[in-house]
Design goal:
Layout: H1 2-33, H2 40-60, H3 65-82, E1 85-95, E2 98-104, E3 109-113, E4 116-120, E5 124-129, E6 133-138, E7 141-146, E8 153-163
Antiparallel strand pairs: 1-2, 1-8, 2-5, 3-4, 3-6, 6-7
Helix pairs in contact: 2-3
Length: 164
């Protein structure tokens, strides 16, 4: 009789241990599944930081920095979309005596260089000779970007991001 009582008591303790383990596991599992989403500010900061690495690497490996940076920007936009972030950018990349301007906004932009205007539609780019400054305008907004005369590599960015 005592042996049967000890057996039931042991089964009860095993059942309680399994039940407590299951409850603990379900609470722990729920907290680890939720990952912090990337914010648009994180995405923007990451793009700026990685841009420097991409340009330095392209120059060091004697690759075309214009092509490498464009490839990087397209891949970065895909990455941002996967994080549900709309990442749009206009970049102006000066390398040696040439500036490449590329519009990855969803709207056209106007590039003004000392009175001469050129419209760039989405996903379009152009090359210009090095200038001291240029203006980019779109949807009533205008930004001026200045290039230092003694730096052979410079990157200027106009970034628009928003969470979807």
């Amino acid at each position: 009789m005592g042996n049967m009582k000890n057996l039931k008591k042991g089964q009860f303790y095993i059942f309680v241990a399994i039940l407590l383990s299951a409850i603990s596991f379900s609470m722990l599992k729920g907290s680890t599944v939720l990952a912090k989403p990337h914010s648009f500010e994180d995405i923007r900061a990451n793009y700026i930081q990685e841009s420097e690495f991409v340009l330095n690497n392209a120059i060091y490996q004697e690759q075309n920095p214009f092509e490498q940076f464009d490839h990087f920007t397209k891949n970065f936009q895909k990455f941002a979309r996967e994080k549900n972030i709309n990442f749009e950018v206009v970049y102006m990349l000066l390398y040696q005596d040439t500036i490449k301007i590329v519009n990855y906004l969803s709207v056209p932009v106007t590039v003004n260089i000392t009175g001469t205007e050129e419209k760039l539609f989405p996903n379009e780019g152009t090359f210009i000779d090095k200038v001291a400054a240029l203006k980019i305008s779109f949807e009533g907004l205008e930004n001026t970007y200045k290039f230092a005369p003694d730096e052979p590599v410079q990157l200027k960015l106009l970034i628009i991001t928003e969470e979807r």
